[in-house]
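hey so u asked for the seq, here:
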Amino acid sequence: MSLFSGDNEIGNILQQAVKLKSHQMNEKRKTYETWPFFVQHTLFHGEKDDFKVWRQLPFDEKRVHCERLKEEGNVLFKQGSWMDAIEKYEEAATLVHYCYSTDPGWRKNQRGIDDDVLVLVDDVGCTEEDAKWQRKHRALCALNLAACKQKLDKFDEAIKACDAALESGAKKTAGDFFE
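ran it, structure tokens below
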């Protein structure tokens, strides 16, 4: 008989406390939960020092980093390193479409991930050409993520990535995306 198993009074109380806390946290992040997994992950990418710096760069410079990260993902995909490729494809889009918390201590305090302090950034640059590139780039990264997820037999996540590609607003057919 384990203390946390739920077959004793303390275990039952602890399990109820976990359920209550989980319910409270889910109520605070309803919008966050609607975002695709790879957009949710951008919250954590923003904690990396290089991403903090890159997100502040002018759009043209961000674009260079985005393309480099996507190409690194392509190399990893060709090598069959699906998980590493996923990380690169997620990072490749995180400079132009990402979320962050306005609460700098969100990880350390009791707030956690809370819609009230999350901001979704959709940096489309200054020109229509920038905006078209951003939409296409996001769609390509999402399709590449879908291909990785398919290789890993994570079909639900692959479908969500395909849905995100379609929702990106890119004005091309799927066949046009495969370069």
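The first strand starts at residue 97 and ends at 101. The chain has two domains: 1-33, 35-177.
lmk if thats what u needed
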